[in-house]
């Protein structure tokens, strides 16, 4: 496919009537509609307007590149408009725009389309190309300019990465960069091209990772980051950042990567760029997105990250569906056994819960194999659900779909270029679904259904002592990292048992275990005031509210400041509280809500309260007695 297949002569406006930004955008969208490339003017025009709100697509030097990827687009296309005097377009350099390229990409735009659009973006960084377009006065001459530029594009491209051995070019610095814009169509690649050209002119080695509509390209490996003298992050959306911890990093809008590439490179090389410090949220986002395509997908780290991606994606369904089910249970207690069903509330909550295993499987698969694994991942999860294979079966389904997808992608990597455009929309989903579906239906579904039944039978027949030990373990896990992966693992395990059996006893253990840390910290700040700062004391009320709501994360700032004392004291209290819930046969038939669920729905509510109170008091006094007075803490910090 050639560039002129999307930038067709019928889509060229060489004498526009518009004299304002809004009018030229209207005129270009109307051209898309009139030629059949877009079937809904208002829908696509709104998408263009939203894109302009996030950042003007007036690139400067007389060029504007409005673009959107939208369901109204029926044929990926580019409108070219040329205004003789220019129009005020809120451009980055404040100058009028005279050359306009409106990109309309289909929601399902394939790799070929996206590659062409990225090439067009890069050509717009070439002054010779712009001058030739300025001189072209007919659709035929514009087509000739584009064809000539496309033919020479590959040989004009700068290197995309540095040589394997940086030591061989010790006199040249090495920097790495990430570029991304909200739609991933235009600015992403223009910033990439500008940074590479500027680096080449300055004698700097550079590797640029792009986050575009076609996925992550030129991925930065751990070795790239280790060797780099600094990092440029020129983005208009979130990208994984924790990997840059400890590296000099310049963070700017993606537009600066296009227009201020030399300034960004100089800032990195000056030694004055700030050192990036990754936060906990950065690390969690990185593990959830799992963009590290160069990591061995079978390594323990990758397996763990892929599992956490599935669990994290599933939790919103658990929380929202669980609270709605809790409302249905409350109505049934107050108004009669069929009231929740009659009002439709119970069905809504159950519908969300029925999606737990497919969502878990689907996002594990996508974490491994990307979007090509989506169909087989969600379908395999649905098969696990229908086979009663439980959460273990859902986890197996996700990993199976992900690894089958990687296998299929590898087998088809040498397909003829003429077929490459339909790989992602035809071959990948059909082949991965066929292989994964049959394996799940005939082999792994039945195997994990039997494992699930056996596990449930074991749990139902546990003696009191073993139940107490299990409850204490789950409670302690909830307090270990307070919303992190260990906390999520305990929560997911209890959700699985609750979803399979309807037994909320283990939900009581994790809920109590998760409520105790913030409650104990709040109480400690009130009782042992001389051991906490004024700011910490003022957070007491906030932590009480968070603790009563079963939001463990309120304890994180305290754990970060004093990890050993806070985490150990919290784990001890949460373990005791979780164990007591099993000793006293308590239960919570809903997966979230804290006190607001326990009050109306908890079984043996008074004993549940007592479990919380005992665990909280134990954690409070361990922490309060263990911490040094504030004056001693300050002296210790000064000496260290």
UniProtKB/TrEMBL annotation:
Domain called PTS EIIA type-2: residue spans: 5-149
Domain PTS EIIB type-2 per the UniProt entry, residue ranges: 175-270
Organism this protein belongs to: Amphibacillus xylanus (strain ATCC 51415 / DSM 6626 / JCM 7361 / LMG 17667 / NBRC 15112 / Ep01)
Residues annotated as signal peptide: none
Compartments it resides in: Cell inner membrane; Cytoplasm
EC class of the enzyme, as a word: transferase
Gene3D superfamilies: 3.40.50.2300, Mannitol-specific EII, Chain A (3.40.930.10)
Keyword Phosphoprotein: yes
Stated name of the protein: PTS system fructose-specific enzyme IIABC component
The entry's keywords: Cell membrane, Membrane, Phosphoprotein, Phosphotransferase system, Sugar transport, Transferase, Transmembrane, Transmembrane helix, Transport
E.C. no: 2.7.1.191
Location (main, coarse): membrane
Pfam families: PTS_EIIA_2 (PF00359), PTS_EIIC (PF02378), PTS_IIB (PF02302)
CDD domains given in the database record: PTS_IIA_fru, PTS_IIB_fructose
Domain PTS EIIC type-2: 303-626
Gene Ontology molecular-function annotations: carbohydrate:proton symporter activity; protein-N(PI)-phosphohistidine-fructose phosphotransferase system transporter activity; protein-phosphocysteine-sugar phosphotransferase activity
Gene assigned in the entry: fruA
TM helices/strands, residue ranges: 307-331, 351-369, 389-412, 424-444, 506-528, 566-585, 606-626
PROSITE patterns: PTS_EIIA_TYPE_2, PTS_EIIA_TYPE_2_HIS, PTS_EIIB_TYPE_2, PTS_EIIC_TYPE_2
GO annotation, biological process: phosphoenolpyruvate-dependent sugar phosphotransferase system
Bilayer topology: Multi-pass membrane protein
GO cellular component: cytoplasm; plasma membrane
Highest taxon, organism lineage: Bacteria
